[in-house]
Each structure stands twice: as structure tokens, then as C-alpha cells.
Amino acid sequence: MKAIVVDDEILALESMVRLLTRMDIEVLESFQNPLEALQSSSWADCDVAFVDISMPGMNGIELAARLQSQNPSLAIVFVTAYDQYAVKAFEIAAADYLVKPARPARLASTLERLRQSKRPPAEETAADQPITLVCMYDIGIDSGNGRVSEIHWRTAKAKELFAYLVHERNRTVSKEQLQDLLWRELDAEKAMANLHTTVYQIRQTLKSVNLPILIVYAGGRYRAELGRIKLDFEEWEHALDVAVAGMDEGRVFRLLMDGYRGDYFQAEGYWWAENERERLRLKWLQRASDLALRLEQAGLNADANLMYQEIQSRFPTWESCYLGLMRTYDQMGNAKKVKETYEKLLHILEEELDIQPDRETAEWYAAWASSRSDR
């Protein structure tokens, strides 16, 4: 195992180097100045960094974030004069921590933990379910058991940065673009520090939930490497296209009613996701409207009515679904619901758009009402 040590206190630095050497750890370099440590080329071959938390010029937490930008697999062990409760207050998911002065037995335990973590995982079995990253409504993990697990993010910025890198998964994004996206109000140096820290937090969060997505940095640009991870909205759209092409209306109905968990990143309403969010919404609306009309024309009024209701709940000002609802309620013999639907339409159009129903809808309702009065 190869290590680098960073500590501004010379006695603590020399003591840690001696302890590691006695335990057959190859110490590549040691630094008192964290800024000098950043310039080293040894990080690419390093397995673990022992970093003091409190240092002048740059604290250990920020240094760790920047180091992991250069080497994502680098393990960080924080060294501090604080007790374990103070360390926990930092809420940083490091590989481990050591309290000064580092004791040989405690250091040996840390090294064994690192060796265990670097052992290759057992081969994946055929029974293992593929992992799907959920982006419809909010970010989560679907492991194939029908339940979505929430991801607990360190900060809202970490959540948004991760979402944006997934959104831009087919291309790399410059660090300047990310700084402008999330920290426009800060000067360049502070924005850069926040970016490095947030990337570090994302990587630790992904590790904590065993989500094998890599945040890769190269040439001043970041990208998310998803590997075998599937995205729920891509899976939904592909399945819908296949079902429509195969004229499998039952499958289309289920995908529209149950498969669409919610709009793309709807929970946070990220502005940069609006185009994709609207594209998927309109695709859902087009397929739902087509299916509802086909069901109605086939005389399947109850199924058509359910589809029109779902359209109304997602697009409350979409007038066509109200006309479909009234027609199917009429065919089902529910005059009360026909009246309620038209009154609801009048109210929504007046309150939201300050307009009246279009001619087709108004004439249909007038003819229906007249036929009822003649009875």
C-alpha cells in the first residue's frame, strides 16, 4: 500500500511517516504545506492520504476534496487533535480518522480496514437485479424489488450537481460551467473550492449507497460514467415506444398509468432540466390522448374515462380531456358527472386563463343539455 502524509506540524508529520514505514507502508511523499501537496504528481499512484484537518492556507477537508478530484479511488484518513465526537461533527465520509497522537494499534486497525476495502468484490451472480437510477419526480434507486430507495445528500448543491452530471451524461462539462451553474455569486477561487468539496461529497454519498457511478475528472472537465446503471425515464420511453409500435394497448395503458412516476427531476424543479422535462410530459400527453380516444372509439368507456382523468390530473387546463370525460360519462349514464366536469372546466379556464371553452366543447355540452331537457 502506498501513502502520502500531509500535516503542518513537523513532529506529527515525522511520527506518522515513521509509524507507516514500520508497518511496511510505502510513504511516497510527506508535506507540511497543503498547497505544495496539491502540486505533487504522486497522487496518481497513491492508495491513501493521511491528512491533518486543521492546517493554515487550506484545511484538510478541502484538500481531500481536491485530491479525490485527481484520484477518485484515493482513500482519505483524517488526522486531528479533536476527539471522535468533534470529528463526527464534520459529517465527512472519510475512510477513517485518527486522533493525535496516533497510536500504533489504532493505525494498524485503520490499515487493515483499508486493505479489506480494496479486496475485489465477489463476482456478480445471475440473480442480481440491475440497478436503475430514478430521475422521474425525484432522485432515488430502484434495485428491482418494486421499491425506490431515497438517497440522502450532504447538501442541496451536491444533489443538484449530481443530477446535472447525469443529465449531461453523454458529454463532459467544464469546471467553469459548473461553477457558473451553482456558485455564480461567488468569486472564482471560492467557487472552485466549493466545486471540489461538492464532488468529494457526491463520491462519498455514492459509495455509501453502493451506487457504482463514477464522477470522472480529466482535462478540466467532469462527466458521470453510469456503466451498467439504467435510467428510469430512458427505460420508460423505450418501453412505451416498443408498446406503441407493437400496438400493445394494454402495455401502453399500464406504462402511462403506472410507469410514469412523475416528471423529470420534478421534486426540485431544476431550471436546466425544463426542456427534457417538458419533452417527456408532452410525449406522455400525446400517447395518453391517442390511447384514450382509441379506447373510447372501441366502446371501452370505463378505461377511456380513467385515461382522461389521468390526463386531467396532470394537465388541468387541457380542454380536450374534459370533452372526452363528458362523452364517456354520458355513455356510462352518469349525467351528474357530465355537469360537474363542465362546471370544473368553466372554473379552471376562467381562473387560470381568463377564457371560455372552445366552440366544439361548448356546442357539445349545449346539445347534451338540450337533449336532457327534452326528456
Please, could you describe this protein's structure?
It is a single chain. Residues 121-127 have low confidence and may be disordered. The termini are far apart. The chain has helices at 10-22, 34-38, 60-70, 84-89, 104-117, 156-167, 175-182, 188-208, 232-245, 249-259, 274-297, 301-314, 319-331, 335-353, 359-373, and strands at 2-6, 26-31, 48-52, 75-80, 96-99, 132-134, 140-142, 148-150, 173-174, 214-218, 221-225, 230-231. The relative contact order is 0.07. Among the domains are: 2-117, Response regulator (Rossmann fold, 3-Layer(aba) Sandwich), CATH 3.40.50.2300; 151-225, Winged helix-like DNA-binding domain superfamily/Winged helix DNA-binding domain (Arc Repressor Mutant, subunit A), CATH 1.10.10.10. By secondary structure, the chain is α/β, with parallel strands linked by helices. Strand 10 (214-218) and strand 11 (221-225) form a beta hairpin. The strands form three sheets. It has a five-stranded parallel β-sheet with strand order 2-1-3-4-5, with helices on both faces. A four-stranded mixed β-sheet has the order 8-7-6-12.
